[in-house]
C-alpha cells in the first residue's frame, strides 16, 4: 500500500508534471494562503518576534556546537530513567533496531505518530517486509497512507488533497484495514474527523507497540517532547506497552529552559496558533504508568555530514514548522512531491542535498529549485538563511562537475561569460560582435524562453557605445 | 554601474539614470572598464568564474565616491556576494577592495533618498502606474518604501496597488531557464495581477524582472508597458518619457 520517494526524477521534470495538475495547484494555493494569513496574524502579535527568532537560533546553534557532549548527556539521563538508548548511523541500522524490538515482542502491528523521520528511513516498508503493519495515526498521515500516497507537506502531509478526495479515500480504503467509514460519510470536516477517530480508536486500544518521533530531546533531563494538535500522539505515547522513539540527533536541546523560545516560535510559525493544543513529554519508564519498555533510537543518517558543512549546518536548526513551505512561490505551484523527499519546499531543497550529499541528478537539481526570492528566510523562525545555503550548494554541485570530461553547455557558457565580463573593453567588443545580452540568453536556451515569453528587441546601440560616441552628453 | 543587462539590452535606463542624477546636481561618470557584478555566476554556483568578474568590478570603480546602479539585485550582489567571492579567491587584497567598495554601492532609490536626501525629484509622469517591488530590492537589500515614496512625489502620476506585490515574479536569473515551467507559472500569475490593476505601466527597479513579466504581458497582448523606475523619475514635462 505504501509508496516511496526512491527513484524520483530531478526537480524540473517532477515539477512539470505537477504544474499540469490544475486541481493540485488550486488545492495548494488555497491551503497555503490560509495558513499564511493565520501565521502573519499571530506573528504580528509578538512585539519582539525578531529577538525571539535570534534566541531560537542561538539555542539551536549552541546545541549543535556541543552536539557530541549533549548527546552523551542525553543518553545518560535517558538511561538513568529506564529507557534503552540505541545509536543508528543510517536508515538500515535504525530500521533493524525497530524491527528487532517488534520481533522480540511478537507484535504484528504498531501505531505511529510524528513519523517524518521514520518516513525518511523507510521504516514502514522495513516493517512490512517482516510482516508487521505500521498504522499512521496523525489524521493527515492517515489520509496519505490510506491513499497509497506520499506526504507533500511537513505539517499537512495531505495538503494536496481536498475534502472530496479525502472522503473517497476513507470510504474505499478504511474497511480493508480496520473499522470501515460510515457508508453515508459526507465531506464535512467534522464528519471526516469523526470517521478517522473511530477508525483509529480501535487501533490505539489494540496495538501493543508504538513508534514515535520527537520535536525536541532535552539532554539535561532526558526528556523527549512532542507537540501536536489532535491528541492522537498522546494516545500512542501512553497506551501501548512498548514505545520506540526514533529521534534525529539534531533534535537535542541542552537544557529544559532552552525549550522556551522554541516552544513559542513553533506553534505560531507552523499552525498559526499561539500555543499548540497538546505538548507531551516523556522520560524513560514510570512503573505502572504508560509504556513499560521505552527505546530511543538516536539517528544520524547524514546529519553529521550536514554538520561538517560550514555554511550548510544552519539547516540543522530547522524545527520543521513548515513556514518556509507556506510562503514559497515555487512550492505553492508545484507541491511537495516534486522535491522527492519527506522534506519538501525550501528546507527540503537544502536539507536533502546536505543529508544525502550532492552528486546524483535528483539531489543536484534541488538547490536550483528556487528563484532565490528570500521569502523563506524572512519566515523562518530560527533564521536559517536558506538562499545563502542554496547558492553555496549550487557551488558544490558545480564543483562536483569541474572534472567532467565533457563539460555541460552551461559551464562552457559561464566560462566564456566570465572571460567577457572580466573587462569593459572585452564586453564592449562582445556587444558589438554578438549583441551579447541576448546572445548569452540564447546560449542558455532562448528557445525555451520564447516559447512562452517575448524577448525585448535589442537596441541599435549599447549604453557603452553611446557613452563612448557622445562622451556621455545627453544632447547627442 | 549601468549593469550588463541594461548596457546591452536597456541602454535607455542607463541614460535615464544619467539624466536624473545630473538634474539633481550629481557629477556622473561611466568608467568604461566596468562590465558585470558577477551575480549570474555566483547565483548559478560558478564561484571560480565570478572571481575575475568581481576583481574587474572593484578595479573599475576604485576611487569613486559612490557606485549607483539601477538594479536591486546587482546592488544586493555587490553587498552580499562579493565578500563570498573574495573568500573563495583567498585574496586579501581583493577582500580589502570589496570591503571598501560594498558600503559605497547603492541601488538608485537608496542613493536618492539616503545619500541625496530627496524624495521629490521633480518628475512628471501623467499615467496610471503600478509598482512591483522586486525580491532582491525588497528582501536582500531592504529598500523598503523608498521607491514608493519617490513615485508618490511624481506629478501627474496615478499610483495603484499591485495585488500580491511581494510575491516573486519567477525570473530568478538562470531559474527562468532551468525551471522554465515553474518560472512561467509564477510569472503568469504576476502578469495577471498586473492586468487586474488596470495600470498602463508596470514599474520596477530591475529590468531583468521586467523583461520576464513584460515578455509574458506582451505575449498575452495585455497592453501594459513595463518601465524602469529610473525612466519614470527622469521624465519631466519638458522631456516626457525620460529617454535620452
Ligand atoms: S527551515 Fe525554518 S521555516 Fe522551514 S521548516 Fe525549518 S524552521 Fe520552519
UniProtKB/TrEMBL annotation, chain A:
<dbReference type="InterPro" id="IPR037171">
    <property type="entry name" value="NagB/RpiA_transferase-like"/>
</dbReference>
<keyword id="KW-0004">4Fe-4S</keyword>
<dbReference type="InterPro" id="IPR017896">
    <property type="entry name" value="4Fe4S_Fe-S-bd"/>
</dbReference>
<keyword id="KW-0479">Metal-binding</keyword>
<keyword id="KW-0813">Transport</keyword>
<feature type="domain" description="LUD">
    <location>
        <begin position="73"/>
        <end position="298"/>
    </location>
</feature>
<dbReference type="InterPro" id="IPR024185">
    <property type="entry name" value="FTHF_cligase-like_sf"/>
</dbReference>
<keyword id="KW-0677">Repeat</keyword>
<dbReference type="InterPro" id="IPR009051">
    <property type="entry name" value="Helical_ferredxn"/>
</dbReference>
<feature type="domain" description="4Fe-4S ferredoxin-type">
    <location>
        <begin position="315"/>
        <end position="384"/>
    </location>
</feature>
<dbReference type="InterPro" id="IPR003741">
    <property type="entry name" value="LUD_dom"/>
</dbReference>
<keyword id="KW-0411">Iron-sulfur</keyword>
<protein>
    <submittedName>
        <fullName>Lactate utilization protein B</fullName>
    </submittedName>
</protein>
<dbReference type="InterPro" id="IPR004452">
    <property type="entry name" value="LutB/LldF"/>
</dbReference>
<dbReference type="Pfam" id="PF02589">
    <property type="entry name" value="LUD_dom"/>
</dbReference>
<keyword id="KW-0408">Iron</keyword>
<dbReference type="Pfam" id="PF13183">
    <property type="entry name" value="Fer4_8"/>
</dbReference>
<dbReference type="InterPro" id="IPR017900">
    <property type="entry name" value="4Fe4S_Fe_S_CS"/>
</dbReference>
<keyword id="KW-0249">Electron transport</keyword>
TrEMBL record, chain B:
<dbReference type="InterPro" id="IPR004017">
    <property type="entry name" value="Cys_rich_dom"/>
</dbReference>
<feature type="domain" description="Cysteine-rich">
    <location>
        <begin position="2"/>
        <end position="78"/>
    </location>
</feature>
<protein>
    <submittedName>
        <fullName>(Fe-S)-binding protein</fullName>
    </submittedName>
</protein>
<feature type="domain" description="Cysteine-rich">
    <location>
        <begin position="129"/>
        <end position="213"/>
    </location>
</feature>
<dbReference type="Pfam" id="PF02754">
    <property type="entry name" value="CCG"/>
</dbReference>
Amino acid at each position: 500500500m505504501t509508496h516511496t520517494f526512491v527513484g524520483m526524477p530531478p526537480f524540473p521534470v517532477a515539477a512539470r508534471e505537477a504544474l499540469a495538475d490544475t486541481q493540485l495547484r488550486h488545492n495548494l494555493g488555497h491551503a497555503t494562503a490560509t495558513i499564511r494569513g493565520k501565521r502573519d496574524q499571530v506573528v504580528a502579535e509578538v512585539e519582539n518576534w525578531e529577538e525571539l527568532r535570534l534566541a531560537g537560533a542561538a539555542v539551536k546553534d549552541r546545541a549543535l556546537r556541543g552536539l557530541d557532549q549533549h548527546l552523551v548527556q542525553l543518553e545518560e539521563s535517558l538511561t538513568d530513567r529506564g529507557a534503552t538508548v540505541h545509536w543508528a548511523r543510517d536508515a538500515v541500522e535504525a530500521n533493524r533496531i525497530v524491527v528487532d524490538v517488534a520481533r522480540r515482542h511478537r507484535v504484528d502491528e504498531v501505531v505511529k505518530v510524528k513519523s517524518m523521520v521514520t518516513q525518511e528511513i523507510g521504516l514502514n516498508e522495513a516493517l512490512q517486509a517482516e510482516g508487521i503493519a505500521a498504522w499512521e495515526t496523525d489524521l493527515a498521515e492517515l489520509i496519505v497512507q490510506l491513499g497509497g500516497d506520499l506526504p507533500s507537506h511537513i505539517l499537512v502531509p495531505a495538503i494536496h488533497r481536498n475534502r472530496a478526495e479525502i472522503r473517497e479515500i476513507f470510504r474505499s480504503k478504511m474497511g480493508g484495514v480496520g473499522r470501515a467509514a460510515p457508508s453515508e460519510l459526507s465531506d464535512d470536516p467534522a464528519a471526516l474527523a469523526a470517521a478517522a477517530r473511530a477508525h483509529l480508536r480501535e487501533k490505539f486500544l489494540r496495538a501493543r507497540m508504538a513508534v514515535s518521533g520527537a520535536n525536541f530531546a532535552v539532554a539535561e533531563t532526558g526528556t523527549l517532547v512532542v507537540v501536536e494538535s489532535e491528541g492522537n500522539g498522546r494516545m500512542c505515547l501512553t497506551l501501548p506497552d512498548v514505545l520506540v522513539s526514533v529521534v534525529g540527533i539534531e533534535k537535542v536541546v541542552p537544557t529544559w529552559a532552552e525549550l522556551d523560545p522554541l516552544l513559542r516560535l513553533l506553534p505560531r510559525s507552523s499552525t498559526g496558533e499561539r500555543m499548540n493544543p497538546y505538548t507531551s513529554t516523556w522520560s524513560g519508564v514510570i512503573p505502572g504508568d504508560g509504556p513499560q519498555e521505552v527505546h530511543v533510537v538516536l539517528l544520524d543518517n547524514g546529519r553529521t555530514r550536514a554538520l561538517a558543512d560550514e555554511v550548510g549546518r544552519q539547516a540543522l536548526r530547522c524545527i520543521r514548522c513548515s513556514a518556509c513551505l507556506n510562503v514559497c512561490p515555487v512550492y505553492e505551484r508545484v507541491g511537495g512531491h516534486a522535491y522527492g523527499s519527506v522534506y519538501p519546499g525550501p528546507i527540503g531543497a537544502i536539507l536533502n542535498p546536505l543529508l544525502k550529499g550532492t552528486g546524483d541528478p535528483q539531489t543536484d537539481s534541488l538547490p536550483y529549485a528556487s528563484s532565490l526570492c528570500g521569502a523563506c528566510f524572512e519566515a523562518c523562525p530560527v533564521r536559517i538563511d536558506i538562499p545563502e545555503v542554496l547558492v553555496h550548494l549550487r557551488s558544490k554541485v558545480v564543483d562536483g562537475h569541474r572534472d567532467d570530461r565533457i563539460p555541460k553547455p552551461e559551464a562552457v557558457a559561464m566560462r566564456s561569460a566570465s572571460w567577457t565580463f572580466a573587462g569593459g573593453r572585452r564586453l564592449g567588443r562582445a556587444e558589438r560582435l554578438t549583441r551579447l545580452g541576448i546572445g548569452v540568453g540564447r546560449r542558455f536556451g532562448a528557445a525555451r524562453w520564447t516559447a512562452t515569453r517575448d524577448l525585448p528587441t535589442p537596441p541599435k546601440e549599447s549604453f557603452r557605445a553611446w557613452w563612448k560616441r557622445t562622451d556621455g552628453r545627453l544632447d547627442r | 554601474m549601468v549593469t550588463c543587462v541594461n548596457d546591452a539590452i536597456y541602454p535607455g535606463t542607463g541614460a535615464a539614470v544619467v539624466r536624473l542624477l545630473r538634474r539633481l546636481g550629481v557629477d556622473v561618470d561611466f568608467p568604461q572598464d566596468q562590465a558585470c557584478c558577477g551575480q549570474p555566476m555566483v547565483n548559478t554556483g560558478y564561484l571560480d568564474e565570478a572571481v575575475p568578474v568581481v576583481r574587474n568590478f572593484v578595479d573599475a570603480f576604485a576611487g569613486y565616491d559612490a557606485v549607483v546602479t539601477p538594479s536591486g539585485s546587482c546592488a544586493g550582489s555587490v553587498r552580499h556576494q562579493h565578500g563570498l567571492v573574495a573568500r573563495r579567491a583567498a585574496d586579501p587584497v581583493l577582500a580589502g577592495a570589496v570591503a571598501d567598495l560594498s558600503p559605497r554601492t547603492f541601488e538608485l532609490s537608496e542613493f536618492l533618498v539616503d545619500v541625496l536626501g530627496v524624495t521629490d525629484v521633480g518628475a512628471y509622469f501623467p499615467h496610471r502606474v503600478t509598482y512591483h517591488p522586486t525580491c532582491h530590492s525588497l528582501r536582500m537589500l531592504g529598500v523598503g518604501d523608498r521607491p514608493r515614496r519617490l513615485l508618490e512625489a511624481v506629478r501627474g502620476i496615478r499610483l495603484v496597488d499591485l495585488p500580491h506585490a511581494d510575491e516573486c515574479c519567477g525570473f530568478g536569473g538562470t531559474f527562468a531557464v532551468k525551471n522554465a515551467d515553474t518560472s512561467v507559472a509564477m510569472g503568469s500569475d504576476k502578469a495577471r495581477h498586473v492586468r487586474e490593476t488596470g495600470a498602463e505601466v508596470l514599474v520596477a527597479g530591475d529590468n531583468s524582472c521586467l523583461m520576464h513579466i513584460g515578455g509574458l504581458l506582451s505575449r498575452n497582448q495585455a497592453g501594459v508597458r513595463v518601465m524602469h523606475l529610473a525612466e519614470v523619475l527622469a521624465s519631466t514635462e519638458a522631456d516626457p518619457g525620460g529617454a535620452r
